[in-house]
## 1
Amino acid sequence: MEKILVTGGAGFIGSHTVVALQESGYEVVIADNLSNSDEMVVSQIKKITKIDPVFEKIDLTCTKDTVRLFEVHKPDAVIHFASYKAVGESVQKPLSYYFNNITSLLNVLDGMRHVGCERIIFSSSCTVYGIPDELPVTEKFPRKKACSPYGNTKKISEDILADAVYAAFHNDRELPLKAVSLRYFNPTGAHPSALIGELPLGVPNNLMPYITQTAAGIRPVLNVFGNDYNTPDGTCIRDYIHVCDLAEAHVLALKYNKVSSFVEMFNIGTGRGYSVLEVIKSFEKMSGVHLNYEFAPRRRGDVEKIWSSPAKAEELLNWKAYRSLDDMTETAWKWQLAVLSA
Ligand code: UFG
């Protein structure tokens, strides 16, 4: 049984990936500092899979602790989610974002080398494409200047991995390093059991938790940022992807085991864009709740429309998203109700 270290495994995407890994027969070690998650998630995972993941509360910016983590567990591969992820906050606290997201990656790579671990799956984002020149976005598109320090940490992390993989490939003294970078589009939804889901701290930035919290009466009204975009209904278009589909992409990426001189990048999206109003319509249909929303000015930094071509992941990873927008809004609402009644 292969042992996978999942950093940030108590977080939103991390926890769903732990479930998918355990259900696929992997042994999982979660490393998380709980800065944006709750240890209760670990017992919720066990309720779904009936398997206890090993949990280590650890700050990966500490080199000594990270090396010890690797020495104790000697993982066969790493899925590295742990990072700060709020776009707006990163503009306020850039140094903290650079320190946390870059130092933890460097320490993880150091720990891997220490114990001879050769495989890493990195959690990247479609934000590296900036405003795309055409649609759909393929992996061949150039990366643009990042719109936020958060986005820049994803770009820099991809560059660090690229240099490390190149050096490992061309230098016999280095350990071979196989790295896959998954560029997520807009992850949303929750596990159908409603035992795990997204737990935003404070006022949510993202659309789906804002919708569900408004419907639940936690927020008075959803502001739809802009209805004068050049899209069919005037609102922005995104490629929303169900978190369980996204989790499965990580399991398949682990099986992608090619030794090469570069990092293999994959878009992880559905290939289909939906507008903000279409998401609202789906939510109202699946929840039966009328949503209080109003149009507001555009949000600074928003891209008008973006969606992926997931063709490369389909071809090389044998992965495909098959859950619908209705599945996303339905499970997100079920999760919100579960949080309310907890
Ligand atoms: N939106 C609203 N009202 C809200 C929240 C969002 O109308 O209260 C709209 C936004 O304007 C946008 C769409 O809903 O048109 C989606 O917004 P999100 O904040 O949910 O997602 P983003 O596309 O802005 O951000 C996501 C990830 C980031 C990542 C970025 C890359 O959350 O981590 O995609 O483009 F960097």
## 2
Amino acid sequence: MSAFRYAGSELHAEGVALSAVAERHGTPCYVYSREALTANYRACASALAGLPSLVCYALKANSSLAIVDLFARLGSGFDIVSGGELARVVAAGGDPRSVVFSGVGKSDAEMEAALAAGVLCINVESASELEHLAAVAARLGLRAPVSVRVNPDVDPGTHPYISTGLRESKFGVAFADAAALYRRAAGLPSIEIRGIDMHIGSQLTDLAPIREAVTRVLGLADALAAEGIRLSHIDVGGGVGIRYRDEAPPSPADYARMLQELFRGRRETLVVEPGRRLVGDAGVLLTRVRYLKPGTPRAFAIVDAAMNDLLRPSLYDAWHPIDAVRPRRDEPRRYDIVGPICESADFLGLDRELALAEGDLLAIGGAGAYAMSMSSNYNSRPRACEVMVDGSDTIEIRRRETIAELFAHEQRLPR
Ligand code: LLP
């Protein structure tokens, strides 16, 4: 059951009325449910429990310290893509030894920080990166633990901006070149081969492409083993989608059943890198209607959240549920729910049927993932605060930015 539910006439997060959150913390405000985050993690980890496995939460979905802290307490590892995300894991009390480091463009400084922290694995995405990492590790007198991210060339059937496993994408090493790169890695004294890695895309609602890609990767692992290159883990990436509207994504149990079947009898540890699945439905963006602008052909509800708080509708045409915190009984009408930013792309939802009055609160669902983490200060808007609900408690896990903070790192010209 969702942790966001109506009790009486009002939408609650766990035991807290969202109007009380708005009153105390202001709007716009991201509200997360500790119960939902915990349940999502446990569903994922327990579904894989029969296999040697490690869940590495993909920080990019939501890298707020309290969320990373919660997953660390639950025993999660982490998938990171930058030195900044590594620093967040450490600051939140996560264990760097269960961190996998993905990404196509790691800097020397990021490689050094990862090696010094003792991460589980660095996923290399090109031949040049492997050589570079070998040189950095040799300079430090260390051996770099490595996986090669292979590009299995499978169409995941999702939005092109979040497809990563096609031959024409920038991610991973071409499938045909991967074995040669492993042979090269095996000959580099400062490289220690740990595993193999893939990730074909995000918001996947069909298991078939994942099955096809994992099958290809397992075949490659077997071919490498036949040459004496043995892997200790196989990382199948993240990407399983959630329901925003009417999608029917596979359940954690369905996904795990497929992996159990594919991994039966194997010795390697299975690594998964879920992001959206763990946090997406565990957060809402709470916003207040500032002005109603009736008109033809469109009526607008101008709210205090905007594309800088939730970019997904503008960038991917993504559909997020939008519900009134206290639904009215009046006749609903169709509104475009838009923000104050000076762009026509600044919309949070189009053509939504709602009964609204100025001052009403709206909850935009599916805002636990890729909302705060993709937020910006566009139009010099301070970033919204974040609140974690825990039963009947609320904890402000990030306070609202102040206007002064917006240009605290800037200066005027000297003359
Ligand atoms: N592992 C790697 C290497 C990734 O690149 C990603 C996401 C994940 C794991 C986690 O994927 P997830 O389980 O969350 O689907 N901003 C976009 C999503 C970008 C995903 C990028 N990579 C959105 O809002 O839909």
